[in-house]
Request: fold
Amino acid sequence: MKKVLPLVAFIALGALVYSFVLRPSSTTTSATATDDGELKWYSWEEAVAANKKEPRKILVDVYTDWCGWCKRMDATTFQDETVQDYLKKNFYAVKFDAEQKEDIVYDGYTFKFKPYGRRGAHELAIQLLNGRMSYPSIVYLNENFEIITVSPGYKMPDDIMKELHFVSDEAYKSKTWDEFKASGK
Reply:
């Protein structure tokens, strides 16, 4: 029994590390669908360029590589066919690593990685999240890249669909989020 317990602990630790380390590498893909119909993600720069040609709302998934709930959303919510179809038709979906080291030039300003605390964060992530660094967080932007709302935390497909409709239908202009949820849409 004493020999089995360390082996079981090692396997459990390996499974835990495995579940928190794997993440689809998709921060630099473009287009709204792959050849097999799955959702692909825009980089920030690609979304800016695409929005100049055809303005749309923007969904920014702010994540980190170490975030287990971010990985779970990628594996569940963003794999949901209804969510994918709605995003492809109505949004530019952007994956943004809050801890990326690469500079981003946008609107005449160069956003950089800022080391602080144990990890640090990218200035654009800090700006998008209004300094409330929580992962995953979904930031909804209008066609002018102005923040509509920030939604922190893991979302099930039904929950994110409500948010997507709230933003794309522009219900936020006439109702609060609570009023919209209460209306049953």
The beta strands are 57-63, 91-97, 104-106, 109-111, 113-114, 121-122, 137-141, 147-152. The longest strand covers residues 57-63.
